[in-house]
């Protein structure tokens, strides 16, 4: 009887050991499988979001990353991807302010990369936007360079292409798809708001006003083509910098909604935007009389648009202002 009890105890202990070993082996196998799956995606060839830049082939996931494009920085941040260095201007959008900290190396300003400093970092990849286009060749001598900012001529599709660059390179497709689904839901809501808001005009304040048309090539044309707002004037120049307009011209256009993006605040300059805009002329517009002069977050719209978090914030800002 004693021998039987002893045998039972031994068998139970042996079963526990075998179960633990099996679980450990399964865990290790799963981890190895995930690593193998990630590695099997490489070599990976990445195309920039606009024409004119060479395709880049990566042999493995980049680890030492330099980011100039704040929209792509926004996407990487939303997906939990660490970066080594960023462009450090006078201001960051609020949700990216942590990148002003000393734990992130300084790659220069948005328009003036510190080429020698970047070379000393020995990065695996550099991600740029239009503001760094003139330095493309020099940066390419340091590390593979990918242009990741949305193309104004095809804003929404190229925005999603930018997100997919991050998702593929850093094995974050599931997370990216979840974020994109949230944005699509918000888009449905802003489309409904736009349908009830009338004719809209998007302007940029930089001590003078620039207005943006609704067509391809317009920097903020996606407010019309994607968000769904009817254009108050579809004859405006469709360009990155917009068409300079006077207050009298804005009154003549007479939008039901006037969106104002404050470039001064976005670039760290003290701004008098409300005092300048809410003058005797603009106050005669339908937008002013209906309380629909909407001041949009300058840093968000001017610096970091085209990111997973920033696009959602932009849409939500409009919904909150007009709903």
Automatic annotation (TrEMBL):
<feature type="domain" description="Fe/B12 periplasmic-binding">
    <location>
        <begin position="64"/>
        <end position="323"/>
    </location>
</feature>
<dbReference type="GO" id="GO:1901678">
    <property type="term" value="P:iron coordination entity transport"/>
</dbReference>
<dbReference type="InterPro" id="IPR033870">
    <property type="entry name" value="FatB"/>
</dbReference>
<keyword id="KW-0732">Signal</keyword>
<feature type="signal peptide">
    <location>
        <begin position="1"/>
        <end position="23"/>
    </location>
</feature>
<comment type="similarity">
    <text>Belongs to the bacterial solute-binding protein 8 family.</text>
</comment>
<dbReference type="InterPro" id="IPR051313">
    <property type="entry name" value="Bact_iron-sidero_bind"/>
</dbReference>
<protein>
    <submittedName>
        <fullName>Ferrichrome ABC transporter substrate-binding protein</fullName>
    </submittedName>
</protein>
<keyword id="KW-0813">Transport</keyword>
<keyword id="KW-0175">Coiled coil</keyword>
<dbReference type="Pfam" id="PF01497">
    <property type="entry name" value="Peripla_BP_2"/>
</dbReference>
<feature type="coiled-coil region">
    <location>
        <begin position="166"/>
        <end position="193"/>
    </location>
</feature>
<dbReference type="GO" id="GO:0030288">
    <property type="term" value="C:outer membrane-bounded periplasmic space"/>
</dbReference>
<dbReference type="InterPro" id="IPR002491">
    <property type="entry name" value="ABC_transptr_periplasmic_BD"/>
</dbReference>
